Amino acid sequence: MILDELERAKKFIYVASYTFNHPIIAERLLETVKRGVEVRLILEGDPIGGFQESENLKALSEQVNIRLMSSEELRDRYRFMHAKYVMIDGESSHNNGKPERKRISNL
After folding, report:
1. pLDDT tens, 51-75?
2. What is the reported pTM?
3. Is the dihedral of CA 90, 96, 100, 103 positive or negative?
4. Domains of the chain, with CATH numbers?
């Protein structure tokens, strides 16, 4: 289901995740970038066990804005980044792994 929704994206895809290492989703995100869709990822920069940059993430980082939440300035306000959601064209399509359709109007 998420793969179909990524294909239908027209403007942007924003992903927040604790970690990222799914090769099929990475491939689909790269395809959307080639179609002119803006893709951004924010990931936990210091997950338990340490941050490991997968080949999928390396490939994405060449064409996608990826931010790691790991700076001390951010840590003062937020101890960790544990959100899990995908926002596609202003709609929250997956939140903590559960499909949902919720229009977000304040972007």
Report:
1. 777 787 888 888 999 888 875 655 5
2. 0.77
3. negative
4. 2-103 (3.30.870.10)
Place of tokens 């995740």: 17
Closest CA to 51 of 70, 36, 37: 70
Comparing C-alpha atoms, which of 101, 79, 99, 83 is closest to residue 20? 83
d(CA 6, CA 27): 11
The tokens for 36 are: 């002119």
Please give the Cα distance from 35 to 38 (Å, whole number).
9
d(CA 78, CA 21): 23
